[in-house]
Amino acid sequence: MGFIVVLHVLVCILLVISILMQAGRGGGLAESFASAESMFGTQANAFMVRLSTILAIVFFSTSLILAVNSSKMDRSLMARTKLPAKTTQSVPQETSKEPMVKVSEPQPMQPLVTTNTAK
Fold first, then answer.
1. Could you give the angle at the alpha carbon of 84 between the alpha carbons of 82 and 90, nearest 5°?
2. Nearest to 1 by CA among 61, 78, 81
3. Residue 114 maps to a domain
4. Residue 101's pLDDT is what?
5. Residue 4 falls within a domain, yes or no?
6. Count of domains observed in the chain
7. CA distance 39 to 68
8. What residues make up the domain containing 66?
9. Would 95 be classed as within a structural domain?
10. What are phi and psi of 59, to 5 degrees?
């Protein structure tokens, strides 16, 4: 399980880097990575698109694997302790420390009486 988590984090970092290095319509951050073309040749954009596609597939695969494994376990992937069992017990009225407040039934509103004093 630890290998998959490490692989997932590594793929996340590489995916972000590969997307940022791609040349967009306006150049984007690809302008600052001018050495990308010299490193990968003139077909740098096609290579980066393929690399991003492969990394995205690996990212989704590791995400699904981690989600399925997490749902089958009764503990967290990040903690070594077991999660507490969920209980739906209600607190009895006698042990409740909150004061009981009785509310009366709502009363109808009194009609508003206006007197016309202007003549």
1. 170
2. 78
3. no
4. 78
5. no
6. 1
7. 39
8. 9-23+36-72
9. no
10. -60, -50
